[in-house]
Amino acid sequence: MICVPIVGPTMDRARKDLDACQKLADIIELRLDLIEDFDLPLLLKEAGKPCIVTNRCKIDGGQFAGTEQERVEILRRAIELHVDYIDIETSTPGPLLKSILENKGRVKVILSHHDFTRTPDDLNPLYDLMRQMPADVLKIVTYATDINDNLTLFRLLARARKDNKRMIAFCMGEKGEISRILTVQQGGWLTFGSLETGKESAPGQITASTLKHIYRVNDLKTETKVYGVIGDPVSGSMGYLIHNKAFQETGLPHVYVPLLVQNVTRFFNAYEPYLGGLSVTMPHKEAIMKTMDRIDPAAERIGAVNTVVPDGNGWTGFNTDYSGALKALEPYRPLQDKNILIIGAGGTAKAIGQGVADQGAQLTLTFNRNRDKAQELADQLKCKLISVRDVDQAAVDILINCSPVGMAPNTNDTPYPARLLKKDIVVFDSVYNPMETRLLKDAQAAGCATVSGVELFVHQAAGQFELWTGKPAPIDLMRRVVEDKLASQD
Ligand SMILES: NC(=O)c1ccc[n+]([C@@H]2O[C@H](COP(=O)([O-])OP(=O)(O)OC[C@H]3O[C@@H](n4cnc5c(N)ncnc54)[C@H](OP(=O)(O)O)[C@@H]3O)[C@@H](O)[C@H]2O)c1
Questions:
Q1: Which of 22, 99, 132, 417 has its CA 20 to 30 A from that of 374?
Q2: 403 CA distance to ligand 1 middle (Å)
């Protein structure tokens, strides 16, 4: 179930938001502490869904400014109005809490506990204490300081399931995002989703629309396999859009989540039983290799893994930047003996350079500031190295930009002078934001064939999908998802 909190700040806004959340919410939380001069009977009349009435005090993350007596009096009034649920905190003074629990009538009580600073290693003592109270639902919400904290909440949910106790449990904060997505799948009663960005009632809350339509939280089953991208940062990743859509399109019950990870080995050891596969992004593409049972030969040569796949007999690391680049260049193959000039000598140049070198291309790399690093890669790929300032001296059939030059916000920059672009050159820009870089525009004006960074992104993602599922990737749909997302950022 998805619960949408109504957070005001005015009655007028709250009423409009009640109307707007009808298609998203399974249940609504009326956050009375955040709605000025609320009219509870009117809100209940217009809610159109079961309601939880909450009047949060400050130490539990709310804004109620009166005394505890006054705060609880409002909950008492909600009981008289026969609301579906009220939420009351374990921090409420004992006599007030007791009087609510003993006089709740047929109204169901959610007994809640929040920790805004951390997740204790063992939540069982707290759960045991809360279970002794005559509440209908227990709610324990903590702050994730590490991604592994989410597993503490998952273990608690498993216990509550065994005890047949209705429970809400997840972690707040960016590192807790995965538990907001997976809590219902793990046996939690509901998850909270904001009506829109900016209307969150707690840190790390995801929009209800994303929970419902992208992560499909109400459809996840206990056997759902969890996929995701590990990196730091991961908040800008488009992987969750493209892979969840692809799973949905192909009828697969899987889910794909962003995983903000600092320590790869600790993460992988703890999460392995939950995982169906992983994407790996910066800065973990090398560190993940030591947790693998096997490394695909191309990924081994590159020295970086961006895809992790289980095969029933351990885990194998692959590099789909390598295979994705070759797919993006498919119309221009064979590459044997073609003169390929790569601008840049970083991670992308390494994967693409290895790909084209393995196909027998005549490769030239460029260095910019960091000659030694570029020389190391040129030695590895057994290719020529020139300064980026001498590109006019290189023979070019295919030009590949693997530098960030031209990326937003510096969209007027180009890594290659327009005057050198001739119509028989193929120009491939790995930058995908913007989709049409200055380099690609110059190339089109010169009559060159072009390949955009979107193709690289889509093909590396499609390669991941195929390795994980053994099914053909819905590539046109994946491309559309990326293009729509990038267009919406313009
Ligand atoms: N389409 C996709 O799926 C995809 C995937 C990954 C990356 N990318 C794109 O590829 C770009 C590079 O990523 P990366 O991971 O390889 O980054 P990276 O490891 O930081 O490498 C960047 C390289 O670009 C060079 N460079 C920087 N400024 C330059 C300039 N003004 N002229 C020439 N070369 C310059 C750097 O050389 P110095 O250090 O010597 O300056 C370095 O070798 C990203 O910015 C992104 O736009 C696209």
A1: 417
A2: 3
| Ligand 1 centroid from CA 1, angstroms | 43
How far, in Å, is the centroid of ligand 1 from the Cα of 440? 16
* Catalytic residue list contains 245: no
Instruction: Please pick, among 254, 285, 327, 338, the residue that the annotation labels catalytic.
Output: 285
Q: Does residue 453's CB lie within 6 angstroms of at least one atom of ligand 1? A: yes
Query: What pLDDT is recorded for position 309?
Result: 98
| 139 carries an active-site annotation | yes
For residue 232, the CA-to-ligand 1 centroid distance in Å is: 17
As a whole number of angstroms, the distance between CA 427 and CA 259 comes to 34
Question: Annotated catalytic, 441?
Answer: no
Please indicate whether residue 203, judged by its CB atom, sits closer than 6 Å to ligand 1. Answer: no
Percent of the chain with pLDDT over 90: 96
The CB of 406 under 6 Å from ligand 1? The reply is no
Is the C-beta atom of 239 inside 6 A of ligand 1? no
User: Cα separation of 80 and 62, whole Å?
Assistant: 23
- Active-site residue, selected from the candidate residues 139, 243, 245, 459: 139
Q: CA–CA distance from 228 to each of 23, 243, 329 (Å)?
A: 27, 9, 27
Q: Whole-angstrom Cα distance, residue 229 to residue 198? A: 25
Q: Which of 37, 110, 111 is nearest to 74 (CA)?
A: 37
pLDDT score at 125: 98
Ordered by where they begin, the domains of the chain are 2-223 (3.20.20.70), 228-318 (3.40.50.10860), 323-451 (3.40.50.720)
Q: What is the pLDDT of residues 277-334, one digit of tens each?
A: 999 999 999 999 999 999 999 999 999 999 999 998 999 999 999 999 999 999 999 9
Residue 171 backbone phi and psi in degrees, to 5: -110, 145
Q: Is 370 in the pocket of ligand 1 (CB under 6 A)?
A: yes
CA of 349 to the centre of ligand 1 (A): 8
Query: Is 285 considered catalytic here?
Result: yes
Residue-wise pLDDT tens digits, 396-407: 999 999 999 999
Is 147:178 a contact under the CB 8 Å cutoff? yes
What pLDDT sits at residue 199?
84
Q: pLDDT per residue over 42-65, tens digit each? A: 999 999 999 999 999 999 999 999
